[in-house]
Amino acid sequence: MSLPEGLIKIGKGGVYLSVHAQPGAKSASLRGLHGGAVKIAVKEVAQDGKANKAIEAFIAKVLGIAKSMVSVTSGHTSRSKRLFIEGDVEQFPKKLHAWLAPY
Known about the structure:
6-stranded mixed sheet, single chain, globular, alpha+beta, Conserved Hypothetical Protein Mth637, Chain: A
């Protein structure tokens, strides 16, 4: 499986990840790909940054990294978001491939 163009972008000290948010879901989960982004559902509502924090925490948990290493950099009030994930730029694409393998 190849990743969609623009899904990840290598940055200084980490990678940028395109995310399509689905707040207010029954549970937090990966829902596959949506228009060149990873679709992530979270229980929290899109109010006062609650859904953004939940998405950051979900990605950190799945990747096995600290929550402080994941941050929303754009799209704070939109379903289309860009997150920055600090860390090894060589390992992250491999982890993302494994995470998305069922999709």
